[in-house]
Amino acid sequence: MPADRRILSPMVVLGGLSALTLLSIALFMTLGARGKWDFILAFRGTKIAAMVLVGYAIAVSTVLFQTITNNRILTPSVMGFDHLYRLIQTGLVFQFGSGLVATLDPRLRFGVEVASMVVFSGLLYWWLFNGAGRGDNRRSLHLLLLVGIVFGVLFRSVTNFLQRIIDPNAFLTVQDRLFANFNRVDVELLTVSALVVLAVSLAGWRWRRTFDVLALGRDAAVNLGVEHRRAVMTVLVMVSILVSVSTALVGPVTFFGLLVANLAYLVIRSHRHALILPAAVLIAVLTLVAGQLVLERVFGYNAALSIVIEFVGGLAFLFILVRGSAR
Amino acid sequence: MIDVKTITKRYNGTVVVDGVSLSLPAGGVISLIGPNGAGKSTLLSIVSRLLPMTSGTVEIDGLDVTTTPGEVLARRLSILRQDNQIMSRLTVEDLVAFGRYPHSKGRLTDDDRGHIRNALRYLDLEPLAGRFLDELSGGQRQRAFIAMVLCQDTEYILLDEPLNNLDVKHAVAMMKLFRRTADEFGKTIVLVLHDINFASCYSDRIVAMRDGRVVHQGPPEVIITPDVIRDVYGVEAQVMENGGQRIALYYQ
């Protein structure tokens, strides 16, 4: 095939990304280590595991979400998915009291939260994308974007409101859960999340060729015999689960998914999800691990990684938006 | 056979397709003509299950399009709408290969590769096979989409304004290709056309629509007449015979 010579083949890109990711993980595990290795490895290993899991969940959920919505600007977090998950977490404490929620098995609690997330986000976004009885009139991308941002703010405000009116003990329980970050990850939650993500991935891998067809748009997908409605619903469920995992572990990150998904489209010049998804995951993990490494070793924990990522991601978002509307 | 029974499509009270019944036998080229807003594209979308109907039924060889599994229909009927925007980075060859998805679910066999090669050759796309879609002109892209649909190799091929963006040379080549596909392979090709003379010269049968209804149908000799054109489009036209083909002149 007379491919453009300036463009590297997808396999080379994937190989390079894997090498860089492994290198950054190795550096993260060993750099500046003083003391007993078994403690250091276990301590840093947990952080790495959390970052890999979060990067994976965000990258895959964003790419799949963009595949079913056929655009490169909307992401689950821009559409308010992660704030919805926050609202569900707070809502459960509000409804059932901190005593019950705190004594519940964390795995069961996570299960309940994910299940409610799947149901609510499924209903909400199904309604949104299928135009609430407006038939086949596609909604404009900018309208969806606006609605998503308004939803995000609404969910966050309701969450804040609920937190104000619950009793102080319950508030502490909630707060304890909401201020998670990579330096304080719940190991038990990590294991459950890893299993959930693995299950979603195994299911998703069998669908990878269907994803390629879905990315052609609804009409083409229907023409090629994909049961579009069911396929979109399945992907929405996967996305909801993955967003729950990443939000439960580190909280909302608005623009990170957008950044890694678009970088993946940029470096992988192919339509195949079998290539795009791994690339997005590798870029996400690399960004998180390398970012955290620089943050800890160079700036000595003096800045938050999320701020840096959101700043760069926000710029990328504006750039894509402006370029997209100029075209 | 495509069997359309009393199809109605309504958007918020506006009737776009109004109780259309139509029976199209298998084989041949059938053109749908009519003024803007006559409901041609909507009817085509309903027949191909892209749009749900408000009432009525459509059967393709006895298979009801609303209840038959998508993958079964995809091997029997293909549709290309206008304005195909694709987000993925696709080469022409990748796009055409998608036409084989209903048959091989993405794992290409040698047979599939043969179909892809033929489709590329028929549409004069071989030199462009490795180019990305966003590097092509509108007409080249249109040809790539048509190649994908032909590659799907279905009994019924529905195309909404396939001559969009094509220059005269490629428009003629495209119509000849449709004619050949119908004659040599026995396919049924249903086209929405704006150029009534292309419809006249290449169709076995013309269906004329106005205001959501089928107002005339029949072979070109019956449809391409001053009376029918006045009734359908509301313009005065002269009709000339030229080597057995009827050409309508409506430019003045």
Automatic annotation (TrEMBL), chain B:
Q: Does the keyword Kinase apply?
A: no
Q: Where is the signal peptide?
A: none
Question: What keywords is this UniProt entry annotated with?
Answer: ATP-binding, Cell membrane, Ion transport, Iron, Iron transport, Membrane, Nucleotide-binding, Transport
Gene3D superfamilies, per this entry? Answer: P-loop containing nucleotide triphosphate hydrolases
Localization recorded for this chain is: Cell membrane
List residues traversing the bilayer.
none
The record gives the membrane topology as: Peripheral membrane protein
Q: Which domain of life is it from?
A: Bacteria
Q: Name one GO molecular function term.
A: ATP binding
User: ABC transporter domain location, by residue?
Assistant: 2-236
Name this polypeptide is given: ABC transporter ATP-binding protein
Source species, please?
Answer: Azospirillum aestuarii
